[in-house]
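Aim 2 progress. For Ribosomal protein S6 modification protein, the working sequence is reproduced below.
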Amino acid sequence: MSGALRIAIMTDETGWHTSRLKKAFRARGAEARCVDLADCRIDTTWAPHGLAIPGFGHALPDAVFVRGIAGGTFEQVTMRLGILHALRECGVPVYNDARAIERSVDKSMTSLLLHRHGVPTPATWAGESAAFAQRVLMREAAAGRKVVMKPLFGSQGKGLRRLGANARGRLAPLPSLRAFSEVAYLQRYVEGGQPGFDWRVLVVGGRAVAAMRRVGGQGWIHNFAQGAACEPALLTDALAATAIRATEALGLDYAGVDLIPAHDDPASPLVLEVNGVAAWRGLQSVTKLDIAAALVDDLLDRKLADSRAPVALASGDAPR
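Predicted structure tokens for this construct:
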């Protein structure tokens, strides 16, 4: 495919999502190749960029779509994110880039940025002190509230614990932080209706493009991966606006935003999480929108196009 755009899909596993993305890139005349970040390397003898990306020889991709970053040691994950940082420094558009992914993967930073940007989200506490976390739990329980304890890094509803007084008013002690990598991330629990549900809204290029309700699942956890049923949802102005603001707060090109109705105002959604490497198989099952095509179009028509646009000089001289 001589002269075609060459795209790297960064992923540690191939399957349904990568197949959809490759098909969408082919429809746009672009050649997409799956690359594992663990196989990339920095090599300052590798001319001309000092970056070796498998399948691209001494050249770099025209753009990068980040579909997945494998877990590993702190050093391994830092190295993989470093490759994404290096690609951006070399002028390659990265969708979503490492800075944005770092903000969304770290739930404490997500909560802080949502709070600073005035995006409605449940009260949140995070720190390394078990004593402080226990005081938060006791204070919330005394007010008749529960909290959810989550792994700082995690997805698909795994490892969540709901804490608070039981029906007899007894408060169980805070779980050991050892299972949470010695970090306590606590979020005020928002009681849902019956049956319980939350929303997932997909934001692409600053627009909310699709929404669904995730109903049921593993008790009070409504993730698709935990058995929740996906239903079409009306993309209301409130849902769309809140999801867009959350995505902008983290600087993401696209995001899956998880929201839940506020207890005192069901029409006003609260943001629970913002996913910067979002899966969309469940959402695709309830929407006619070709999500992979929408993502690919935004990457090529906005992100890549903007990176290649001429830059006007501050003095008003002609663009270069």
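DSSP finds eight helices and 15 strands in the chain. This observation will guide construct design in the next reporting period.
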